[in-house]
Structure formats: structure tokens, C-alpha cells
Specification:
14 helices; alpha/beta; 9-stranded mixed beta sheet; 3-stranded antiparallel beta sheet; about 375 residues
């Protein structure tokens, strides 16, 4: 492997399964609903071909984490999951303590299927619960009930040592008190990890149209900030402090794959619409695959991969991305690594100004981290430090 400041962070593989049973009205991810189930044999073969192609670009790597995301990967048969993991194992070396996460929806959870995923090699599951009351779930377009979600959480815990689930807050009409109560219930159910996302209205989604028409009103800025503060306080008090803006875990239970992203490691993006960051002979390079599932499948059959764009990243781009990802972490960033990536040090005057404003802090180890005051305005911090 070529010498690069990314080399010690790890190497991850993201596998994107693009199909869902239904499209949620807030979702702008690359997910698709199909009336007929996809031909999983054809998809297995296509994934294996793209994995082999990317492995040819990145020889000598040891995979430290695999993440099966979507879409809804738990719609796959366990045999398909096993085939994808076998393809990764055959293309690169696997770390002995590799983390292999599969995203699942409560509606697609069955004990026998979970047993199959575990036998296939999955050792961590992330469940898309999103809310703990039926009225909120219906408004969010979810297909499961709160009771089904809790059964899914219990089923996952019986089959996997490591589990996580997601919740969405700042929902219409939600108060800090109600969110605190919901969060305490979630923590009582969660073994080690919670992902807690503030609802954002994304262009092109049904929620965006409703909001524009005044039919969907989310909490105002002050309430949203209060909800964020409640999230930090309740989770920290229960032993699940934030290690990233939206992710909370008991010490040692952090998602290693997501940490690889935030620590600006190297990862392969496989499947429709997947993004990767690979360290190639010409330097760190961004890759993007064809978004449309059938078009991706056809491109892989024709060319052996679905990559439609590659972008070599210069020092300025690497520095900006490193800041954008790393400042999301409670641990912050190493300024020496920023200098190695970007070719220049952090500007001491700009850093000093942000410290005086209480937006960032410099730790005893010399790392630069956003403060609770600075975390909600992360983009402004990045822009200031990157200038």
C-alpha cells in the first residue's frame, strides 16, 4: 500500500442493497420499491464482480469492517448476505476482529432469518425503529408498530452480541419533555448503542412538499436546540454519551465502521449509488457508482463494475473532508493529520477565535474538538478552519 495519512485508520467495505418494501416520506436515500422481488442470484453475481474490480484497485488491504446498508438489506435472503460476505473475504484479507453490520427494518425481522444472518457472518445489527409510539410511526410512513419494533429489538439481542437502533426526533409537535421520556424508554431497551437523528426536510421528498404547503410544521430553531440538548443530557446520564453528533454508545460499543468514515479512513463503496474513498497510486480518490439499480446491474454486466465517476482529491479537498467528518466526533481531530493531508497547519488565529467564542476546544492531547455550543453549527466551524 502506498504511504498516505489514511493508512492506519482501517479499510471498510460498504455494500448498498437499494430495495425497500416502501419509501418513507422523509427519506432521500438511494432506495427503491419494486413490485416483484429482485433476482437475488443476479445481484449476488453483480456484487461479486464489482467487489473483484475494486479489490484489483486496492491490493493488500485488510478489511476491518463491513456495513450492509440500504435500502433494506434485511429483505435479502441470508444466503445472499453470505454470498456477499464470501466475495469480500475472497477479495481482501479480513481482520480477526472484523465488525460486520447489517441494517434491518422491524417489519422484516424473523428469528430464523436473523439466525441465518448470524451464521452467514453478520455480528452486529442496526434496526430502523425511528419512534416508540404508533401515531409517530404512522406519520413517518413506517410499516411497523411500536410493539413490533420492540419485538424486533428483543429478537436481535437474542441473536447478536452487538445491536443498535435508530430514532428520529424533532418530529412535528414533539416537546423536550415527551422526547426525554421516549429516550429513557429507548435506553432501557438498548443494550449498547443508539443513533438519534434530528428530522430534516430534504428536497424532493414528500415531506418537503408538505412543509412547503404549510401542512407539515417541524419544531422551531429554539425547540430543536432544546431537543438536541435533552438528547445529550439524557444519554450521557444513562451511560451512553455521544461519541459523534448523532450517535451514542456505551464505552467500547461505538460503530467501528462509522468511526472509520468520521476518522477519514479508506473504504470501498459497492452497489448502486455507493460512494467510496480509495487511496490509489495517484492519491486519495472519490468513487461513485450508478444510482439506478437496473442501470447499475447492466453496467456491471457490461464493464465489470458500476463506477460512473472518479475524482482525485487534492490537498485542499482532503483537508476540508477531514474537518467535515472529524469535527463530528467528540474526540475531535488531530491537527498534525490535518496538516499532513492538507499540506498546511490549522491557522492559529482562526482556531484561537473559535476557542474564545466557546465553539471549539483544544484537548490535553492537543486535539481540536467542537464544544456542545459549537456542535450544532458544525458547517460554520469547518468553513472557518478550512479558510
Amino acid at each position: 500500500m502506498i504511504d498516505h495519512p489514511t493508512r492506519d485508520v482501517g479499510f471498510g467495505v460498504y455494500l448498498h442493497w437499494p430495495f425497500c418494501a416502501a419509501k418513507c416520506p422523509y427519506c432521500d436515500f438511494n432506495s427503491h420499491v419494486r413490485h416483484a422481488p429482485p433476482d437475488e442470484t443476479a445481484w449476488r453475481e453483480a456484487f461479486a464482480r464489482e467487489i473483484a474490480h475494486v479489490a484489483g484497485l486496492t491490493p493488500g488491504r485488510t478489511v476491518t469492517s463491513i456495513f450492509l446498508g440500504g435500502g433494506t438489506p434485511s429483505l435479502m435472503q441470508p444466503a445472499t448476505v453470505g454470498a456477499l460476505l464470501d466475495a469480500v473475504a475472497g477479495a481482501w484479507g479480513l481482520a480477526p476482529d472484523i465488525e460486520i453490520t447489517l441494517e434491518a427494518n422491524p417489519t422484516s425481522v424473523e428469528a430464523e432469518r436473523f439466525r441465518g444472518y448470524r451464521l452467514a457472518g453478520v455480528n452486529r445489527v442496526s434496526l430502523g425503529v425511528q419512534a416508540l409510539d404508533d401515531a409517530s410511526l404512522k406519520r413517518l410512513g413506517r410499516l411497523h408498530s411500536a410493539a413490533e419494533a420492540m419485538i424486533a429489538v428483543e429478537t436481535a439481542a437474542r441473536h447478536f452480541a452487538r445491536t443498535s437502533f435508530d430514532l428520529i426526533y424533532a418530529r412535528p409537535g414533539q416537546t423536550p419533555a415527551a422526547w426525554a421520556a421516549e429516550l429513557r424508554e429507548a435506553i432501557a431497551r438498548a443494550a449498547e448503542h443508539l443513533s438519534l437523528y434530528q428530522l430534516t426536510i430534504e428536497e424532493g421528498t414528500p415531506f418537503h412538499g408538505l412543509a412547503a404547503a404549510g401542512k407539515l410544521v417541524t419544531p422551531d430553531e429554539d425547540t430543536a436546540r432544546a431537543l438536541f440538548d435533552v438528547t445529550q443530557e439524557v444519554c450521557a446520564g444513562a451511560g451512553l454519551p455521544a461519541y459523534e453528533i448523532s450517535n451514542h454508545a456505551r464505552p467500547g460499543a461505538e460503530s467501528r465502521h462509522n468511526l472509520l468514515y468520521w476518522r477519514y479512513g479508506e473504504y470501498a463503496g459497492i452497489g448502486p449509488g455507493a460512494h467510496g474513498r480509495l487511496v490509489l497510486p495517484e492519491g486519495r480518490t472519490g468513487t461513485v457508482t450508478e444510482r439506478a439499480p437496473e442501470a447499475w446491474l447492466a453496467r456491471v454486466a457490461r464493464e465489470g463494475h458500476g463506477i460512473v465517476a472518479t475524482e482525485p482529491l487534492g490537498p485542499a479537498e482532503e483537508g476540508d473532508e477531514f474537518l467535515l467528518m472529524g469535527l463530528r466526533l467528540t474526540e475531535g481531530i488531530d491537527p498534525a493529520r490535518f496538516a499532513a493531508l492538507s499540506g498546511r497547519p490549522v491557522d492559529p488565529e482562526r482556531l484561537g477565535g473559535l476557542v474564545r467564542e466557546g465553539l471549539v476546544r483544544v484537548t490535553q492531547a492537543g486535539r481540536i474538538a467542537a464544544t456542545p455550543k459549537g456542535a450544532p453549527v458544525l458547517n460554520a466551524l469547518v468553513a472557518e478552519l478550512a479558510a
